[in-house]
């Protein structure tokens, strides 16, 4: 900082520090240079990049179109390389040691997940819900005689896993399997189970 000598009201001379104006400080000019660098970089895009962005948006919208419609048992739905197929639904009877609420039955849904994303993906039965006349809940029922239950895990690229998920549902309700594609958006894949 620069120093300046000032004469006070009492006639004495005092040494006072004077601050530089902000535009004379070195860090201001470094920030201005960085800002210009980023603005010029953002404005000077090439047309090849624009075409790639358009192609990606088109591919994304085609993939997301599948999320907006309802599918049926046996349909293979692919979302960003993650393929889901509902193979079957069965309504098994309760076992000897099982208790189930009056007016309800077991619904056992068999699904297959195929990973074609190019990287390892996690899967979890809690990514799926069953919808009864629009009211959704988890597949969290227990049946003593259940086999081949779908558990959570990691699926390598190109690998496939199949398993059953079990829920208690009301007799006569319209059933759908709902898969939430991402926790970051509200997109879902729906399979009609009847």
Write structural notes for this entry.
The chain crosses the membrane at residues 26-45. With 194 residues, the protein is α+β, with helices and mostly antiparallel strands. It folds into two domains: 4-37, no CATH class; 71-192, Immunoglobulin-like (Sandwich), CATH 2.60.40. Helices cover 21% and strands 40% of the residues. The protein contains two helices and 13 strands, in the order E-E-H-H-E-E-E-E-E-E-E-E-E-E-E. The protein has helices at 26-43, 47-68, and strands at residues 2-7, 13-18, 70-72, 76-79, 82-90, 104-115, 121-123, 128-132, 135-138, 153-155, 160-170, 175-180, 188-192. The strands form four sheets. A five-stranded mixed beta sheet has the order 3-13-12-8-9. A four-stranded antiparallel beta sheet has the order 4-5-6-11, covered by helices on one side. The longest helix is centred in the first third of the chain and has 22 residues, at 47-68.
Helix content: 10-25%
Main β-sheet, spatial strand arrangement: 3-13-12-8-9
Which structural class fits the helix and strand makeup? alpha+beta
What is the residue-mean pLDDT, rounded to a whole number?
Answer: 83
Largest sheet: 5 strands, mixed
The first-to-last residue Cα distance is: 81 Å
Coarse shape: elongated
Q: Topology as H/E string?
A: EEHHEEEEEEEEEEE
Instruction: Compute the CA-based radius of gyration.
Output: 32 Å
* Strand portion: 35-45%
Using the coordinates shown, work out and report the CATH topology of the largest domain: Immunoglobulin-like
The protein's oligomeric status is single chain
Number of strands: 13
CATH class of the largest domain, named: Mainly Beta
Tally the helices. Answer: 2
For the record, the count of structural domains works out to: 2
């Amino acid at each position: 900082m620069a120093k300046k000598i000032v004469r006070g009201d009492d006639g004495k001379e005092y040494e006072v520090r004077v601050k530089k104006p902000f535009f004379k400080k070195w860090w201001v000019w470094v920030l201005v240079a960085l800002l210009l660098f980023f603005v010029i970089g953002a404005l000077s895009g090439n047309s090849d990049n624009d075409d790639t962005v358009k192609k990606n948006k088109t591919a994304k919208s085609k993939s997301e179109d599948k999320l907006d419609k309802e599918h049926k048992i046996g349909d293979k739905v692919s979302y960003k390389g993650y393929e889901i197929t509902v193979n079957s639904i069965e309504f098994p009877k309760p076992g000897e040691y099982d208790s189930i609420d009056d007016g309800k039955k077991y619904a056992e849904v068999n699904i297959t997940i195929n990973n074609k994303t190019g990287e390892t993906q996690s899967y979890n039965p809690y990514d799926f819900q069953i919808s009864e006349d629009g009211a959704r809940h988890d597949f969290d029922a227990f049946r003593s005689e259940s086999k081949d239950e779908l558990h959570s895990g990691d699926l390598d690229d190109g690998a496939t896993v199949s398993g059953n998920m079990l829920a208690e549902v009301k007799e006569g309700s319209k059933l759908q399997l709902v898969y939430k594609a991402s926790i970051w958006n509200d997109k879902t894949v729906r399979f009609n189970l009847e």
